[in-house]
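Predict the holo structure. Ligand: (5S)-5-amino-3-OXO-hexanoic acid.
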Amino acid sequence: MDPLIITCAPVGAELAPDATPYLPYTPDKLGETARLVREAGGSIVHVHCRNDDGSNTHSVERFREAYDAIRSQTDVIVQFSTGGAIGMTPDERASVLQLRPEMATLTCGSVNFGDEIFENSFPIMRGILAKMHEFGVRPELEIFDKGHLANARRLAKEGLLEFPQHADFVLGVPGGMEASVANLCDLVDDLPDGCTWSVAGIGRSQLPLAMAAMAMGGHVRVGLEDNLYYSKGRLARNEELVARVARISEEMGRPVATPDQARAILGLQAFRPSVHN
Ligand code: KMH
Ligand code: ZN
């Protein structure tokens, strides 16, 4: 098996600002978190940005500050969200791609998200992919439901996406596919040949699904975007969620990937200290 790639999603966009004291809102905090995540064994940081008061923003300037803050502290793969927060416009979501992050998410279909709808019509997906091509950004396919894999194959047939790709299965969102090992196996079976994958279990499913992925040869996403708790009633810090997964993986005899090992596994170029200027 390849070394384990651990992604940390430290902020997210759907949590209330006061849900936990440990959300790293500011660029400085995000940079510090990225360094701690790297020290704990993480190799990708999935970035959403907030204003100083904790409200969501997808401003290019704020993403630039966040990117610079992360880069000043560590060599992790910086992965921008193009999902943003529910209600953001497609243009707003795609605008940050001009900063040329190494990776960015591409959610492969619409999905109910609690009482709301996370909208990703084909025109929205095509628009985001066009910007990814323009700026040379590698997608990570966010798969919340099985039909999203069929949508990705359709985009490939249209010539907008080339397989193999890296997919992240986000399981347990209320409205999306349920978080179970059976569902994870089903999705992995349905992936086109040569794809790599990770799993992001929501809430208390985060750790069990991470352990399944570690055993199956997949990769793992943890972080407060998906799960606030370390254990029942005990709020987590991002870096300790990463450290726990790294520890278990090492115990299983599967070392964790450095960022450059992760780049090699994902077919990204080796570390480039500065990419957006
Ligand atoms: N905020 C969620 C509705 C992504 O980052 O690409 C979507 C999301 C996905 O977080
Ligand atoms: Zn996200």
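The first helix runs from residue 27 to 40. The two ends are 37 Å apart (CA to CA).
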